[in-house]
Amino acid sequence: MTIQSALSGRSKRWGHPGAFMQAVTNMLDPATDAEKAARFASLSRDDRIFHVVLAQQFDTQSIEELCQLSEMIRKIASHRQGNLFLQTLLSDRRAMLYFIQPSTRTFMSFTAASQILGMGYNSVRDPSTSSETKGETEDDTIRVLSQYFDVIIMRHPVEGFAEHVADILNGIPRTIPVVNGGSGKDQHPTQALLDIYTLFKCFTEHNTDTPLTEYSGNPFAGKTVGFVGDLKRGRTVRSLTYLLCRYPGVRLMFMSPPELQIGPDILEYVQRNGIEYEICDELESHIGELDAIYVTRLQDEHDVNGESKSIDYYKFALTHEMAGRFKADLAILHPLPRRHELDPRLDALPQAKYWGQVRNGMWMRSALMAYIFRVDGTIRDHYRNYYAF
Amino acid sequence: MTIQSALSGRSKRWGHPGAFMQAVTNMLDPATDAEKAARFASLSRDDRIFHVVLAQQFDTQSIEELCQLSEMIRKIASHRQGNLFLQTLLSDRRAMLYFIQPSTRTFMSFTAASQILGMGYNSVRDPSTSSETKGETEDDTIRVLSQYFDVIIMRHPVEGFAEHVADILNGIPRTIPVVNGGSGKDQHPTQALLDIYTLFKCFTEHNTDTPLTEYSGNPFAGKTVGFVGDLKRGRTVRSLTYLLCRYPGVRLMFMSPPELQIGPDILEYVQRNGIEYEICDELESHIGELDAIYVTRLQDEHDVNGESKSIDYYKFALTHEMAGRFKADLAILHPLPRRHELDPRLDALPQAKYWGQVRNGMWMRSALMAYIFRVDGTIRDHYRNYYAF
Amino acid sequence: MTIQSALSGRSKRWGHPGAFMQAVTNMLDPATDAEKAARFASLSRDDRIFHVVLAQQFDTQSIEELCQLSEMIRKIASHRQGNLFLQTLLSDRRAMLYFIQPSTRTFMSFTAASQILGMGYNSVRDPSTSSETKGETEDDTIRVLSQYFDVIIMRHPVEGFAEHVADILNGIPRTIPVVNGGSGKDQHPTQALLDIYTLFKCFTEHNTDTPLTEYSGNPFAGKTVGFVGDLKRGRTVRSLTYLLCRYPGVRLMFMSPPELQIGPDILEYVQRNGIEYEICDELESHIGELDAIYVTRLQDEHDVNGESKSIDYYKFALTHEMAGRFKADLAILHPLPRRHELDPRLDALPQAKYWGQVRNGMWMRSALMAYIFRVDGTIRDHYRNYYAF
User: Fold this and answer.
1) Most CB within 10 Å of its CB: which of A39, A261, B354, C258?
2) ipTM of model
């Protein structure tokens, strides 16, 4: 059963669960390898990712290419002439940012990436200013927007919705790509890409003399990456874990209150990929072992009955007092926004990488747009001609 | 009596009816030919349309020019070099999209058209973020915006408001054009232009060997165009009818529940122009006669006492079952958004022109902007040099 | 005590007064000259204004430079080639318009200025679409935005907030400038700059043969500038007064109901600078003495108990009946929006400068951006080469 068949005859709007949600669940857990292969094929064109929907679409080669490309763009953009070059690349393209869920960071990051590459953009952020109020289905809204724009970047509260949009777009003559900017509690693949770019950057800078733009290999072998906080409901941890499982020799540590531990589907995925991991119910005693720590906030907006209130989340906060036990090369990441789980007094430490991580998102999203529209080769040529040493 | 005199002394905000609405009514139905001539003159400069307010402003020559120009822009925009050329044309202009009524389609269409021609734009969509909350009259808001922008494109709930804005702008030293993107239940001239462009394209492609960019003539002679649905309250049907009445030999069919039939003012206009028409209270038996069908949704947001609920609107739906009786060259149009009156299973048929119609809106609005800012000659020259065969 | 120390340990959101507001109050009235000097130094880089926070930052030299630059940009922008030149200047920069308070005029003015210089921009206008709903502090929001943008332009309801943002930005590695687009009841320095540019323009045109672009001197000597209306709560009057106090020989007249008179801090500042002034409780008898009149509306949104209702504000309205007593060279200004205090029938008089004042805001804000990003020299060179006579 596919989402399309669940929706056949007449499109349904999200918020009406039933058959739709069941179909989504089936999509998220395809029963057979053949189904899975067909699904990834439907998101690609000519052996290249076309619709960016799931973190699992990215293999080590595409991750490495995108990290290199992000780093090249970052360096090119540090000069005015380089910026002017970058702005020519997508100056005849237009992006639609369809962001139905609140977002500052991801939204602004994508708009900045668009401007870096000269791409026009527009947004739908509040359905109340749109034709939805006249009873249009969201499927039709997508079909209409696809007539005006060259890519749809979306954030949406429904799990699996970006994949559904890929199906809609595959079904009309003028198919344009969709990029998932976060859907439901499930996936946030571009966040995972910027996270792994940040880790790539930290680990290669600490361990090699090769600049990241030239680096090829596995910088994660022998490294311990700790995830701390609300791992059950944080989609960024889920998506990043999918990517890290591509790298043999990485060690994962999931530190959270038992009620908020990472889902069994993820653990099963980790195991299946032969990655070593540990489940812990506290942070304090492990802090000295970590090469990277990924701190996350309590996702209490997903509470049903205020169940978060009984959890002692402060046990999973990274405090100023712990700083003495940090490895010198520790990389502290946080997808932000933060609350009390990450002490602002840590901001000044060299280990604090989270503000750079924010900026890396802009470079990675630029790289991803360049990759989708196949101007990555032009960037690499420009970099090799003017910036490589 | 003019809107200005109705408003003299102190500006009034819309929503305060009385004298204002009476003045609007008088404007919409000028008593004498002299009044009518003066009115159209006030919307023109140097024998060219300046303010785009009413569908009636467009004659066969300007319609033909705009359809040709739309088609040229569409073809030029299919190449990167062509896009870069187009983006130079209005790169030193700025558009204000003053869209007080909800809109996705028209709004996005105008922003895409702006980007195609390189024009900057900004928008006011929600008066609550504006100075209106500090008690400014809407007339003053228009005067202020005219200081920052080179054209005001507006959608507004009040009938005749765009014409009132033309009056305001004519009254200040730095007069810029206004474009009506839909006002009240009355007029939606740019929708009418994109509709007639779509019909022009379908009918010339089916019947001639001349490409639309070279075509001069009347492609509507002998064609039957059916309007179906809520014809009373749909402004798109009204505006398109004004344009079709320019073409002798076209035959119009108005199919709707008696309560929702087209207004007597339109029928009177049709008759006065010597156009053959028919009034029908069902669709089923006429489907095989039609060369084009323009399907519209129930406009129940205009209901006063829920009167739509007692109407069997499904009798005026275009269903999948009817497809067998369609002419091979039938063109199905719909201004969108659609509900149940247009079966999604028809989307895959060659007769379904409504997604292309959406995209045509982007080309037509680009053409209109080019025309208003008098760069249409530059586009025609470019097309003749590089694209004509 | 500084804002930072008031906020130390953990950032507080505005809306939680107490220590924060006390710190702000202290900042606004620094106790010693040394404190004051340190404060202005923290807003500058290399002897040039970097963060634009307070009207008091501008001395006669920077005011004169900015007025000249505004006038040059205005003239260059009157030709297409000039516009294309201007658009190259900041084409690799991006502005964040963080406008938490409603605004049309200032917001649109800054976006137009950005477009004039080719600068990309984006905005946050409604915190409900942002991560604030996830519990982020506003300090962190600023830190995040500073990763994506090259300048933050802000309007905010809290007095002193722009200065606090300058502190935040000074505290992170990638420091970008902040521009105060209006904060609380306190300051609106860019409005003051456009006001003084408008006065500069009027007074030099009336009194000298030197074009403003070449003018160096004090055009205010011997001139009487009247402020009328709600002077207590209008931040534009406060900010403009700071600038006018730079010009010996100007005479200021504050005309308002006693309850709404200008604050004693401003009067003390005026006195300290040796500027002659008069306090009046009516307008009528002074109208003939004025070379400029700055009309303001009743700021009743700041009422606590509807106290404005008992005030006869109409005594402080500029009426059509007064026009006969205007000096021929009188310049009428109004920061807009207006209500009843400025009769629309005055719009047609040569003395009405308020629509031009709106447009001047766009030129002045362009000049300010050019100044901050240090491309003002390029503009002056271009002007001298192509436009000077």
Assistant:
1) B354
2) 0.90
